[in-house]
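Progress report, Aim 2. The chain analyzed during this reporting quarter is listed below.
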Amino acid sequence: MEHKKTEGQDLISVKNLYVEYKSGGETIHAVNGVSFDLEAGKTIGLVGETGAGKTSIARAILRILPDHATKRVGGEIFFKGKELLGLPEQEMRPLRGKSISMIFQDPMTALNPVKTVVEQIAEGIRLHQNMNRKDSLRAAIKMLETVGISQDRAYEYPHQFSGGMKQRVVIAIALACNPELLIADEPTTALDVTIQAQVLDLMKKLQEELGTAMILITHDLGVVAGVCDTVAVVYAGELVEYGTKEDLFDHPRHPYTKGLFGALPDLSKDVNRLSPVEGLPPDPSSLPVGCAFASRCGYATDKCQKGHVEMKRFGDTHYVRCNCCEEG
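Predicted structure tokens for the chain:
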């Protein structure tokens, strides 16, 4: 399935993506009609609470959703003009790790405990770049040095590394074959603040050197501010606000986005407590008919409860899914 290529086309384009799981006889609506585009060399941040569907979006792109639990995947995902969801597995397999790579959420479980770190990097290089063992190990050592791990530690095992060092190894594995698209699933969540800053600086530096596009999954708006070009706010499997970083940080419009910013500490204000978003996200096995955020929203009306809410456009790049948001 080929998507007609045009000048300046996005590297990846996700169109109306749906992901449903099955659990105990119920259908879990994890992703509900998500659409976004990403140009080569740019970064988009997927922001939202735990369980919003961010990781399901990422795994659907790589087609690594769990077979035993996945009920349905729908929509279209175009990568360099090629539709991925309809691609035969033998054509999809060479893209994973080479053209599209992923940094998984937990470095502690992403690494094989019985293989040296250099061998784990070299394995992907051998597979995708047709190198012999000696050359692949040499390339893997060079990649480790690129992420700040010296050659004398290359033949050590994951348990001999700290959390931050493990994350560097995971990044080295993901970037070893110079992918065109990197999916980073909360790559700094398990790290302390100092190591977090180092890892983010490293990822930005490598991204600039290699020209890699990145989908960054996070719930940390500070990370988004430092890394992303565009931002998509995910709630209950839908995008509720989507635009450039400047659109969302300077002019947030959706009540949920405003709530996320309101929950951040502001050093310029003297307050005793933060302002959390009250309530909990809806049960994904029983989503409401109307706006999924209505039960937590102070602006909700009867109209919000009755039908699907469409995206509204504000300016050239800013989209908001809200009945209460009007121009100006």
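The longest strand covers residues 26-38. Residues 1-8 have pLDDT under 50 and may be disordered. These observations will guide the mutagenesis work planned for the next reporting period.
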